[in-house]
Amino acid sequence: xxxxxxxxxxSGLNAIDSPGPGVAVIRALREAKSFNVRIIGLSYESLxxxxxxxxxxxxxxxxxxxxxxxxxxxxxxxxxxxxxNLDVIIPNFDAELYPFIKLEPKLKxxxxxxxxxxxxxxxxxxxxxxxxFGKKYNIxxxxxxxxxxxxxxxxxxxxxxxxLIVKGKFYDASIAYSIEQxxxxxxxxxxxxxxxxxxxxxxxxxxxxxxxxxxxKGNTIAAIPMxxxxxTDKGKAWGGISxxxxxxxxxxxxxxxxxxxxxxxxxxxxxxxxNELYLLEINPRLPAWVYLAVGVGQNIPEAMVNFALGVKxxxxxxxxxxxMFVRYSWDMIVDREEFEQxxxxxxx
Amino acid sequence: MKLRKNxxxxxxxxxxxxxxxxxxxxNPIGVEIVNLLREEKSQEYxxxxxxxxxxxxxxxxxxxxxxxxxxxxxxxxxxSYEEKKA
Lengths: 348, 86
What we know:
By secondary structure, chain A is α+β, with helices and mostly antiparallel strands. In chain A, helix 1 links the parallel strand 1 (about 5-10) and strand 2. Chain A contains eleven helices and 14 strands. Helices cover about 50% and strands about 10% of the residues of chain B. Classes of the chains: A alpha+beta, B mainly alpha.
């Protein structure tokens, strides 16, 4: 039978040292068994490497930053849809999810499908609400405190022991060993990502991640735990290996059952020396290492697209343990005209 | 003493713990001992096997063997008593 060809728009094309998931998601979609694809890249900056990867992205369009507002984004998506007749959009940045969730009904009316968490799920799992999330769903989370005012930093000494983690609301985290360091990171991170700043208890241990897909009814469609083997100075996995930790899979299933999570996700976990698992963060989208999931037998982006289109998907039940991913950087040679095209006209 | 059943051991001497994702290397004699532990051979059996094959004495073997078991235990590669009972 001839496979259907889908026009899928994907963001997160910044395959840099702190990479967006777009290129990995696109590679997964290109290997989908249930459909063929034409890929439309959605970019924010003219130097996002994915824009120039013509072997995997058919055409790229720049889109406005979330700060420009939902209406501006919608106008741009209408234009892109007119040209490309989009079937599905996969937004891959935390910061752009809010406007895309808001636009989901309007886009659906135009025939564009997405498979995103609900606004309630998106807000509830936010770093700022992690304490309440842990209590509500009975999941181990590190103690945290939300700060809006630099003057309240001194009070941390009575509530936390050092070191502690200073986190931005969307990105960035630093380990602080003194109040002075907390103040420095508070200023640095809030200048870049705004307020609030999250202070989190430091859990000594080993970092793990789980990526997967929830069907929105509490069922686990996919789940792959990974141990980071090579971590960059930005804390990103540059190499990792699939593992078979039943405790992690249990926690993932519990998270999906309790929240009825809809869409892709990544759990950031820490295991301490007593083998206790802590949930450090819930990322409401697929991670940059999601291609490992494809490599071990669970094509999560393909399943996500099928869910978006209302096609029945059976839950994955197995995967290969002990398979590694090793990331690499690659210099592409790009004609200046291409850079001009995307910079001046927003299309390439 | 028994090696956890899910620990993978390659002929070249790479041990992989699929629960933690950690890998370790052991030398050729280490591989032999690990494989004997996997077969649940007793220390006495392993001692006879190694002393019969290599030029070493019992005291040296016992010291090195206990060190080796200690290291395997430290890295959580051996089944605990409770696991064995279950």
